[in-house]
Amino acid sequence: MPQTQLQAKRDAVLRFVLTHVEHRSPLLVLKAPPGSGKTYVTLRAVALARHHVGRVAVATQTNAQAEDFCRRMAADFPKFTVHRWASSGRAPRPLGASVQWITRGDEIPSGPCVVVATTAKWSASDLDAIDPFDVMFVDEAWQMSWADFMLLGAAASRFVLVGDPGQIPPVVPIDVSRWQTSRRPPHVPAPEVILRDATLPTVQAMLPVSTRLPHDTCAMVQAFYDFPFQSWAAPGERRLSFPTAGEATGVDRALDALGGASTVLLTLPTPPSGPPLEEDLDVARAAAAVVRRLVERGATVHTESGEAPLLPSDIGVSATHRVMNTRVTDALGPLAKDVRVDTPERWQGLERKVMVVVHPLSGVTQPSVFDLGTGRLCVMASRHSVGLVIVSRDHVGETLEAFLPRADQCLGQRDEAGRGRAQNLAVWKHLHDAKRVVPL
Amino acid sequence: MSANDLLDRLRAWDEGRPVPTTAALPFPRVPDAQRLVVAFVRMAGESSPWGVAAGAPDAKPRFYTVPEPRNADLHAAFVESFSAEILAHVGHPEHLPPPAQGESATERPFPRELLASRQLWMPGSTHVEMLHLLDFRYTLAMTGEEQRLKRVRALGRACGWLFRESTRPGQVRVHDATARLRQLYAFPAETVRQQHLGYLLAWLGSGDRDARLAAAARAEKLSVGVTMHPEYERSALLARLEDFNARRRANDLGAFAKATEIHDALVSELDRRWKLTVEAIRAVDADPRPDNPLLPQVVALGANECQFQYWAHEQRALRADLSPEEKKRLGSHPETDFSPPRAASRYFAHLHAFETANAELVHGDEVLLERALDAGNGFSGTVTAVAPGSKKGRAQWTLETSSDDALRLREESKVCLIGARKRGGSIVSVNTTPEGKREIVVDLRGVAKKEVTAALPDPTSAAWVGRRVRFLDDAVVGLSLSKGMKVWNAEGPGSWLTHAAPRPEATEIPKEPVGDPLSVVKALEG
Amino acid sequence: MKRDVRRRLEQFASNPRCDANVRSALHGVSMEAVARSVGLDPQVGQSPFALLRGQQFERGLFDDDAARLRRALIERKVLPGNATGFLDLRLKAQGGPEASLQSARESFQTFLKSAAKATGEARLGLPTLVAGPVLTTPANILGEGLFAIDVLTVYPNPKPAPIFFRVGEVKVYPDRGGFTDGGELAGARAQAGLYVHVLKGEVTALGLDRELVVLDDGFLVLARPGSNQPSVRGGEDLRHQAERARTMFARAAAHALTLADDVIEDEGEAIAAVLAAPTHYGDGCLSFCELADRCRAEAIAKGLPSALGEDLARFLGPLDLHRALALLHGAPATNPAEEDFVRRAT
Question: For a tag on chain A, would you pick the N or C end, based on fewer CB atoms within 10 A?
Fold first, then answer.
């Protein structure tokens, strides 16, 4: 689809969101796929709400998110003073001329304002002592349980919840059987509870375009989402090129394949006795070799904005097991200081031009419901803007095909094992069908 | 199942006997007078008990049965007959020792000392589930003679509370004996096989691996859950029950004799389950490990739960001025908390219980500590430098740790010194040195002079340099508790959504747009 | 026609990695018979009370034109408030009118065809509840077998919209909300998924898949604790369980190809074939296979980690118990998998 049409689609959703904010719709849920500009939209909606409505609250899930939001607000809308409300133990940070750092509730102005704090801060504070807000924006709302959201009812009368439904769900450390059939299950992400209830006046919007993800990646990660979205980039528009031909190795062949499409699966044979479960040195070395060859071969990044050399800091690595990340770091040698290597949980919200990831099921031959959870794979497969190399033992497709999911979830809950198998299989098949598999 | 659990199982197989999994017991051992042991049996296909055995572990159990559990009237009479056992144990205000002079049952204060340490022991999970099923059947009972209805409903509510309490993390009131043994020991068997109390007790017996394995295999042939073996039902109960029903229909007095036969057949099954539970208690009592010294706070939290989730409701139920409508709403629904604030409040209470038990008990059990460090919830390292901290009296320590260790803690994580919980602070930075070591900087609070000893110098003292220390996550406990209270606030402006209060009005969106919000926003950009 | 296809398919699915189990399911010879043939005394059998209770519960649902069940379905919004009509295809033994599974199957096929054709009043007047509709499993190595769905709800719409069907599974165990037994629920959903898969196949085979649509969500009918009243739970997503059924049929067929023998009708020969086949012990065997204890003893003798649990077997990966213990006692690791284990264990 031409970018003018994509822009029109994106503007239409932005306009839709702004119109509802302007007209004080009580409840809006905005679903945002990876890299779809949700902060861009939220900033504009916050500015409009501040302009029209007056008192605006913003709840984020972490301090870093709160501060990033303030910085961007200061850059895009410097005419509005933003109050960063933090705990007294947190050292103030410079966030921009229009951002004021406050630590007490009585420092919040009584008139029109924009106040940014974490959900924890909002819920730990005495909100009865603060004038109510007209609207509250909740960022990364899929990371917040309904119970925590309930506490925000004391802050504002209207809500805009924004987030990515495909990400890693929050950890619930206790048995929640008692509340599984409750009308408002307290442990479930707030937007899910809201969307399940047809009696609520919910307005729903979906951001239609991912500016981060390359064209064919969108098609692949679409399996994790229940709404369609497209890539800002045209097919093949973003790619890597190398000044010289590669060697006749699996790694170089995989890298060469990134000249034609964004994703490639680099497979290692599965030993007859099964793969090592956690620490798979061969896989770690292969992942590091991919990074090293990207640098050694002097890759050039081609995007809609032009060409640029690929720097080590443009590359990221992710594996689900900490020990694998350590082994990749070891194998990277001096490159480790520039290449971020981390778990998918820590990669949420970040991006790189090229990502090298170890498939979460590479060391799993008998998957559990936890193994099949697609949040981590979804995060790992959606951090790159140009290229993605998935490194894995080659059994995964067969393992998934042979696995018979057991639907022992609580009454009324989603069949996570079946769904996880189907989505994982869809991604694996997508890569096979698109001939994006390169054996090492 | 964690890697440590699986390794313990492997070790147990290697040693040919169960191996302890903790350094201290995560629940207190109390005198037998504080313990009630209860075991059930039920007719297969039915979801209510057919018989109950109850009693303190140092006394003989009392047995209660009903000849025909499918008859609603007979069943209610049977439930009423054993209700006093449960109600007295749980401390129902009408089943306590008489109040002090001048106090009425509806005004007496919560007898915390009497009830704080009471423990209900049951053979296994299906027996605990029976509490839930009794809750379902009797809390909402609608028909029957008034006095009986009152008693069986009270029994239903008590069972409901006990069942809910059994699911609260770290609780020490309701004990599934099988689960408790699994918590204390690693057994060399599949998880599914470890659901059998007799099987576990046989492994705890004597002899080498083969002898214990054989004894366990023999033990697991006998049923210990709430259902009996189908063959036993067929041979010992089916004909007698049919005979009982026929005689009862014919008003034949011989029905009583049949009822006695059924009772006897159920008693032998109940007795086995009850005695196995006592055997498990005795195994726990004989365990040489100490009780975790930090249990008091966990016990105190349990006493609060008893007071506010059970006792206070029951005391209110005794009030004469309560309307029938109010009486109906006493206690909780057996299935779930339908009311959103109640569901959220209980969810936070369970989170608080989880956090409290974790934060407290870990400091009283070296094995739990080691596991917390393994899981990355803390770290051990050598102090390489001590510098002035962020404020007067505070100190900033630089520690060198292995980069191979797991670490879930990040900058700003609160930590405390293992062995000196009051010595704490927050992580300033986590970095990797050029040599590949992990360097962690911690900003430590100052301490009062009286807390300074030769073993624990002031945090600013250079004497710390070169010492190996361990830090543990010092997560703030109490936040969930406060959330659980705040969540009842239904007065906020957003309570139309969070607490189902009336909804605010949106302005109508005009069909034809009047001005483009996009251009308005554009104009606001700087 | 083979009997018990549904049970045998589930038996197959319970442990498809065990050749003995696969052959038992394939040849239709029970593991109980196999166990007895080697001198074991398996404790099997169903409680007489449970059997009766199940029958009474189901009968109670369908008595009086299924009034009790319909009420519960309407209350839980599985059926609309104005839904009427009941087609009873249960066997006489269960209180229905049908003489045999074969006749019930014919009646159901007739119903499907006439429903697809029906127009106007007749279409809107179709029964909204069908008890005991009988399906045929696809021709398969397990044999072609007949089995009955517990209950089907029907949603007639004026043409050209299709008529929707929704599958329901009746279980007598108590609905305890979020505490309802997960294992029992998994079994019920697996069965309901099988029905969805086979019913879709039948509708397609009849060429009626444009007129008749089998929905991917279904409902469970459980018992209210301590009562004969049903508790209906709608909105059960059966998509993946239907896919599981498809996979099971495909795998059963693939397995059959790998077994050299044809289906054996003679019981003695079939038992011998089962006993000659290699076994693969796992935790689940304890709940369905009468040879489980024997296989576990063999697994212990061979040092197979599955003897101590599948979770431990997963943890040890390719290592057996002897090797894992040797490594724990300080033996040097000789390959990456052993190095990985030593690192995780220390």
Answer: N
